[in-house]
Design brief:
- With about 290 residues, this protein is an alpha+beta fold.
- About 30% of the residues lie in helices and about 25% in strands.
- A six-stranded antiparallel beta sheet has the order 4-5-8-11-12-13.
Length: about 290
């Protein structure tokens, strides 16, 4: 939190967001640097579908720290804020510094930093000598080894419906020395004139995504990458998202799409093999 929480005024990320100098190095910690480097990778892989600078648009639509608005912003306002968004406006220097190319650009890494937190806790547990454990922060999970009964860890994925209980599972997946991260747009939304607007904003258009993807779960060797990719898949959609996943080694995904009649359709990569949810550990996905 002291590094990447935008809610703490003196965190690294808050100080970076207030920093208005272009072309000048802003020193960052190793943790911040590693998250930014993974973010840059996801940004490139997803062709901009994941973007850690999208928060001004999230705030504009009423899904950010400024509180709910439940109304559609003016087209001109969206277009003006798009000029403030762009991960490419930040240069990442490997020795531990960021450089703004545009003074007003700001960061919110919440769509990837939670996964990094999971990875760091897992590393602390591993260094303490434990080989069989499960780490979960806010629905993002890393599992190592096996359970006490020698069976694989099984983690559930929540049913992506607004009325679903937190323990109402859609699917499950066994985990061993893997991370599972899930993102969804089915709880945080508003409806205006019969149109549903959810909190996942496409940073390339400035508008909430409208591709009917309600949940995306990613399996990967580390939770930082899985977390960022899960958000990217929500923006990319099922077809393009799975095409990306199939190109990546040791990464699998489940993308859930809501049909016009309200039913759910699963789209899985070749190596994602969900199990009946009754066999899952009772850890709900967000």
């Amino acid at each position: 939190n002291r590094s990447m929480s935008p809610y703490i005024p003196e965190s690294e990320i808050s100080r970076f967001n207030r920093f208005q100098e272009t072309g000048t190095e802003f020193p960052v910690s190793d943790d911040f640097l590693r998250v930014m480097q993974t973010g840059a990778r996801v940004h490139t892989l997803s062709e901009g579908a994941w973007d850690g600078t999208v928060n001004p648009l999230v705030d504009l639509w009423g899904f950010g720290r400024g509180g709910r608005r439940d109304k559609v912003p003016a087209t001109e306002t969206i277009a003006a804020l798009l000029d403030e968004v762009g991960f490419g406006a930040i240069e990442i220097r490997a020795h531990g510094a960021l450089v703004k190319r545009r003074a007003g650009v700001s960061l919110d890494l919440s769509s990837i930093a939670k996964g990094y937190g999971v990875d760091q806790v897992a590393e602390v547990v591993r260094r303490s000598g434990f080989t069989d454990f499960l780490v979960e922060i806010g629905g993002e999970t890393y599992a190592a080894g096996k359970r006490k009964d020698a069976q694989p860890w099984r983690v559930g994925i929540s049913r992506p419906k607004p009325e679903a209980r937190v323990d109402d599972l859609h699917a499950a997946h066994p985990l061993r020395d893997q991370a599972l991260a899930t993102s969804g747009d089915y709880r945080n939304f508003f409806i205006r004139d019969g149109v549903r607007y959810a909190h996942i904003i496409d940073p390339r258009t400035g508008y909430p995504v409208a591709n009917h993807v309600v949940s995306a779960s990613v399996l990967a060797s580390d939770c930082t990458l899985a977390d960022g990719l899960a958000t990217a898949l929500l923006v990319m959609g099922a077809e393009k998202g799975l095409a990306l996943i199939e190109r990546l080694a040791d990464v699998e995904a489940l993308i859930v799409v809501e049909r016009p009649d309200g039913s759910l359709a699963d789209h899985t990569s070749s190596g994602f093999r969900p199990e009946p949810p009754a066999r899952a550990q009772p850890i709900p996905r967000r």
